[in-house]
């Protein structure tokens, strides 16, 4: 009991420090016990919390508040789930285009005990993203940047999808590389749509990977007729393929940058178009936000320090089964 009360004191709140028994007088020994308590705490913290200046890849224990921050672009369901996983012990900087979504995210996270700063950002506008990047860096080293902002094929015109999904990722990569420190990770949420279909012409892929952000849309293949009913879907697929290529091409400048393609589906999609994908996949279930969060958590950690410039599919094997067959009878 005596030892456990001290361990709880150091890691907990320190309300119960007096050893059990009747031969101790709190009033007589309170000063010495207070000093001893703080000496124990200081020694433990000294060993538990590494110096980031010595090795920036060593993480602070999540139970202690560090001077590091996490930046998240897009705070819908996925962004919020990632904030919950990575935000403990960090300063959260959260951005979104919707002020209503931002306000709701701040209220939810603040009520749960997280430290949150919010900013309205249009990822299609480089200066807007740049302001957010510098705001996040003002707190201290940015440990991880997670880019989840994007539009689905049904959420906008082909032009707007290209601006948000394609240009938005390029803007985020360029803006945050200016403030990144050794050990900073950037994870861009993409889609398995970037792996589907017959692929893009090699010349277009090279353009998507290497063109400067202000010339990224200056390609004939990206001039999609507004009357084309399949235009938004085409723009979405091109954007997601472009995201993968740009992450790979940015690895040299970034050092640590990872892309991640996801597959999730709602109940209506399970019963409709996506049902055949789910049924034929090796895992044979719907992807959940937690599946994505688990991958992001690993990519943002020190354990993934040798992974960079890659696209990691978190799709339950859908893409591989479409390409090579299911192997099921």
TrEMBL record:
Q: Does the keyword Ribosomal protein apply?
A: no
What Gene3D superfamilies does this protein map onto?
NAD(P)-binding Rossmann-like Domain
Which InterPro entries does the UniProt record give? NAD(P)-bd_dom_sf, SDR_fam
Domain of life (superkingdom): Eukaryota
- Keywords in alphabetical order: Oxidoreductase, Signal
As one GO molecular function, the record gives: oxidoreductase activity, acting on the CH-OH group of donors, NAD or NADP as acceptor
Q: Does the keyword Nuclease apply?
A: no
Q: Which residues form the signal peptide?
A: 1-22
What is an example of a Pfam family matching this protein? adh_short
Xref: PANTHER family: BENZIL REDUCTASE, CHAIN DEHYDROGENASE, PUTATIVE (AFU_ORTHOLOGUE AFUA_4G08710)-RELATED
What is the similarity comment for this entry?
Answer: Belongs to the short-chain dehydrogenases/reductases (SDR) family.
List the protein's name.
Uncharacterized protein
Organism the protein comes from: Penicillium cosmopolitanum
């Amino acid at each position: 009991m005596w030892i456990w009360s001290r361990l709880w004191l150091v890691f907990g709140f320190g309300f119960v420090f007096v050893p059990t028994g009747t031969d101790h007088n709190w009033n007589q020994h309170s000063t010495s016990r207070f000093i001893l308590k703080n000496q124990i705490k200081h020694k433990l913290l000294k060993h538990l919390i590494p110096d980031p200046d010595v090795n920036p890849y060593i993480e602070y224990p999540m139970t202690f508040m560090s001077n590091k921050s996490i930046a998240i672009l897009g705070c819908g369901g996925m962004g919020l789930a990632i904030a919950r996983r990575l935000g403990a012990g960090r300063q959260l900087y959260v951005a979104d285009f919707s002020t209503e979504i931002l306000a709701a995210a701040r209220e939810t996270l603040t009520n749960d005990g997280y430290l949150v700063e919010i900013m309205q950002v249009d990822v299609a506008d480089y200066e807007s993203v740049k302001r957010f990047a510098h705001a996040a860096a003002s707190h201290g080293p940015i440990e991880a940047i997670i880019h989840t902002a994007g539009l689905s094929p049904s959420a906008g015109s082909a032009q707007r999808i290209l601006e948000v999904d394609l240009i938005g990722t390029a803007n985020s990569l360029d803006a945050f590389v200016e403030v990144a420190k050794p050990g900073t990770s950037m994870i861009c949420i993409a889609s398995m749509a970037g792996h589907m279909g017959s692929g893009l012409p090699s010349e277009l892929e090279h353009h998507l990977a290497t063109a400067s952000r202000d010339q990224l849309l200056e390609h004939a293949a990206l001039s999609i007729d507004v009357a084309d009913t399949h235009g938004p879907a085409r723009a979405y697929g091109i954007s997601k393929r472009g995201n993968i290529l740009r992450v790979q091409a940015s690895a040299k400048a970034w050092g640590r940058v990872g892309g991640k393609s996801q597959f999730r589906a709602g109940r209506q999609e399970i019963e409709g178009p996506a049902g055949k994908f789910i049924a034929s996949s090796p895992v044979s279930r719907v992807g959940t936000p937690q599946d994505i969060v688990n991958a992001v958590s690993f990519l943002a950690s020190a354990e993934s320090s040798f992974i960079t410039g890659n696209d990691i599919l978190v799709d339950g094997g859908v893409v591989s089964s479409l390409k090579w067959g299911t192997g099921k009878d």
